[in-house]
Amino acid sequence: MADPVLSLRDLRIWYGAERGAVRAVDGVSLDLLPGETVGLVGESGCGKSTLGRGVIGLLPAGAGHAGEVNYKGQNILELKPKRLRAMRGPELGMIFQEPMTRLNPLMKISDHFEEVLKIHEPKLSRKEARNRAMEALRGMGIPPTRYKQYPHEFSGGMRQRIMIALALVLRPAVVVADEPTTALDVLVEAQIIRILADLRRNFDTALLLITHNLGIVAEACDRVAVMYAGRVVEQGPAYDITTKPSHPYSRELLRSTISLSTTELHSIPGAPPDLVSPPPACRFHPRCPDAMQICAQQWPTTVATSPGRRSECWLHSKDQIPKGLDAPLEREALAAAEEA
Ligand SMILES: Nc1ncnc2c1ncn2[C@@H]1O[C@H](COP(=O)(O)OP(=O)(O)OP(=O)(O)O)[C@@H](O)[C@H]1O
């Protein structure tokens, strides 16, 4: 297996708040291999975007961090801002959700590409830069005849494809795509996801795809990391996790996804916890249908449930649970504890 192009080790990111720190990412370890797409899924507010920004060192001012984001033998979180800025684009790319806010309405598409290439690849001649841009656009299904047009002359789906082409024209080693297709209709979404899959194969780009849509994960990702309350609670091959989730949270998340075979709508009871003071021990225990007494008392260890697959749940290390603590957690007891 190839060496990872990027490795997160015990990554922690928090935001200062008056009531205490919001621990948005709280001890995440994850590898990205060259050319693979890893889907990052989880309910709103669990820390996906924060993790995605941490991966390319683009954290808001005031955010604290600890742990490592290793890229080419260096922790990018420790780099000088200038060095990091120079890496962002040619080595670490990011695709955001709303293309209109990122494309300058007064600049033609050609100007956008030529500016980016001039900054990061100054040795390219104008003609070479133009050819590179055309190639990237063609890959995204945008005809070269439209190269000199302005952003408003394109549909939302096309603008998003232009943004993706702009991120990929520099052939970065790692791209973080944060909900890149959420604002688009499903057909355009499927098309973009297919094109993204082709492109990363061609350029060996590792893609971290943040999404709410588990259907996309099953279709487009090699691996998936399921996030809950700042932690990655399960990670492994996308097919295995979307067909046979081993963490109760992944299972519940999958059950609450609408698909063609959906006969009734399921929602996970309760709400995700407050990240200022999350529940002790396993953070999912107050909502978990399988919770045992140990889950409210001790942090679960991460267990390799099969090759390449890890799950942070006591269900997978039952032999280590002290006697009696494997009894089901009583819901009434839980509610009373929460009231107190
Ligand atoms: N700049 C910020 N300052 C303070 N708190 C923030 C900031 N950005 C995010 N947060 C908080 O950090 C937590 C994680 O947010 P984040 O946006 O990373 O989650 P998410 O899983 O990407 O959510 P969504 O799917 O809704 O985008 C939330 O509690 C959020 O309110």
Automatic annotation (TrEMBL):
One of its GO terms (cellular component) is plasma membrane. Residues 8-254 form the ABC transporter domain. GO terms for molecular function: ATP binding; ATP hydrolysis activity. It is a peripheral membrane protein. Coiled coil: none annotated. It is found in: Cell membrane. Keywords: ATP-binding, Cell membrane, Membrane, Nucleotide-binding, Transport. It comes from the Bacteria. The keyword Membrane applies. InterPro entries: AAA+_ATPase, ABC_Ni/Peptide_Import, ABC_transporter-like_ATP-bd, ABC_transporter-like_CS, Oligopep_ABC_C, P-loop_NTPase. One of its GO terms (biological process) is peptide transport. SUPFAM superfamilies: P-loop containing nucleoside triphosphate hydrolases. The keyword Nucleotide-binding applies. Gene3D superfamilies: P-loop containing nucleotide triphosphate hydrolases (3.40.50.300). NCBIfam families: oligo_HPY (TIGR01727). Belongs to the ABC transporter superfamily. This is ABC transporter ATP-binding protein. It comes from Solirubrobacter phytolaccae. The lineage of its organism: Bacteria, Bacillati, Actinomycetota, Thermoleophilia, Solirubrobacterales.
